[in-house]
Specification:
The chain contains 14 helices and 18 strands. By secondary structure, the protein is of the alpha/beta class. Helix 9 links the parallel strand 11 and strand 12.
């Protein structure tokens, strides 16, 4: 775990992938993200609203997917890479582009999250089932804690099927995560408290005095059942935005009560909360109200303007004029790696007895995970790691070996000792170093 290298109350107006890559590893306590939902349309704030000028595209195309993303997924997340390859032939053609866009960012979210941290991904049934599998691959199936359903009511012009009136919030957390259950209990109604009290025979132990009866009944029922019920995983008590004073005009704005519940549940005072798609900055406002540190990221400068405006308007009682909201248009620089650090990955050599004299030479951040991905495709699990070398010139090394030896479908043919010797003795040229650096 390292210190966070970003100041509290910072809004980045930049691509969130670049910002995430610049944040130190394992320094964030809570991540909430409300990304595009893959609706295949463009959202724009109405003229005259506080958010006028804010817009974002929820349209994803194959040509928007960068080759570097695919290489990273193949090297570091082989199971996820296989999953996304299958998505190409399933459903609408832009589903793959959307998931590749999300996956490369979720990988970075996983890296910056503390071992005691939690992540809440807000989506809807458009892509929730695809995102669940994506997050299973990145955060681990065992770290899936729950699926929260935020349900709401309102008018609908749908008559031929059930109206769409809920969102989904995927809740994942690392092994040592904290969960503040008491902070998010939903109070029982008076009727429910009275009914449960009668069922348990509470009235039989109450004195005849009406005043004493009321007081002791409340104390006894609260003692038996607590001041509120256990937090549910379906939330129907938070309506969609109806408070005009809270509304900014941002097209996908969420109620601050929703974000306050998530921030209360998943963090404590002074913890660091990150929202990589902060939009109109509701997460930042909620975190400020609850005495958390916060970092927001949005491609539009409007997020910076809105968070300042909202903190002044909605939280004036807690807002200290001496505190400054920082706006940055450049990504942070990691301080947990050293000035001259370049990413290292393993160049590995894998063999299988069914392919004598042939070896898979590839790249992986986690060679054990890569080997396991091969083993799962083999009932006898006979794949074997022959050699591995961690190097900052992983791509140059892999390309050199594939050029030097006869190859077929990323497998090379040759003497294993010679292949290993060539990997160990490889020295990149000046030009190859430039290529390598441009791909990092």
């Amino acid at each position: 775990m390292s210190e966070c290298n970003v100041s509290n109350r910072t809004i980045f107006c930049d691509d969130n992938l670049d910002v995430l890559r610049g944040i130190n590893s394992e320094c964030i306590d809570l991540i909430y993200l409300d990304p595009p939902f893959n609706k295949n349309k463009k959202f724009t704030a109405p003229i005259g609203s506080s958010a006028e000028g804010a817009e974002f595209s929820d349209i994803f195309r194959q040509e928007d997917v960068k080759e570097e993303w695919i290489q990273t997924l193949e090297q570091d997340q082989p199971e996820l890479h296989q999953y996304l390859k299958g998505i190409r032939g399933v459903g609408k053609p832009y589903n793959f582009a959307y998931l590749a866009y999300m996956a490369i960012r979720l990988i970075e979210c996983h890296r910056v999250l503390k071992q005691s941290g939690s992540v809440y991904l807000h989506c809807d049934p458009t892509m929730s089932h695809y995102l669940k599998t994506t997050m299973d691959c990145i955060f681990g199936e065992d770290n899936f804690r729950n699926e929260i359903v935020w349900c709401y009511t309102g008018p609908s012009n749908v008559y031929k099927h059930f109206p769409k009136k809920h969102d989904v919030i995927m809740f994942y957390a690392n092994r040592n995560f904290s969960f503040n259950r008491d902070a998010v209990r939903i109070p029982y109604s008076g009727e429910t408290m009275a009914r449960r009290g009668r069922v348990e025979g509470v009235r039989s132990i109450i004195s005849s005095s009406a005043e004493t009866q009321e007081r002791r009944s409340k104390e006894t029922v609260e003692d038996l059942f607590g001041s509120g019920k256990i937090p549910e995983d379906w939330w129907s008590d938070i309506p969609i935005l109806t408070n005009q004073a809270e509304r900014t005009g941002y097209p996908t704005q969420k109620p601050i009560k929703l974000l306050e519940r998530i921030v209360k549940a998943g963090s404590s005072e002074n913890d660091v909360v990150l929202d990589p798609f902060c939009g109109c900055a509701t997460t930042c406002v909620a975190a400020e109200r609850l005495n958390r540190q916060w970092i927001g990221v949005d491609i539009s400068v409007k997020a910076y303007e809105l968070v300042k405006q909202r903190l002044e308007q909605e939280s004036i009682n807690i807002w200290n004029p001496d505190d400054v909201v920082n706006m940055r248009t450049d990504p942070p620089k990691r301080t947990d790696l050293g000035e001259d650090y370049r990413e290292h990955k393993f160049v590995y050599v894998i063999s299988h007895p069914a392919y004598p004299g042939e070896f898979k030479v590839g790249i992986a951040r986690n060679w054990k995970q890569r080997l396991n991905a091969y083993q799962t495709s083999d009932p006898d699990r006979q794949y074997r790691i022959e050699f591995k070398l961690e190097t900052p010139y992983f791509r140059d090394t892999e390309l050199f070996i594939h050029d030097k030896f006869e190859n077929k479908h990323e497998w090379v043919r040759g003497d294993i000792k010679e292949i290993i010797r060539e990997i160990e003795n490889f020295k990149p040229t000046h030009s190859s170093q430039s290529v390598q650096q441009s791909l990092l």
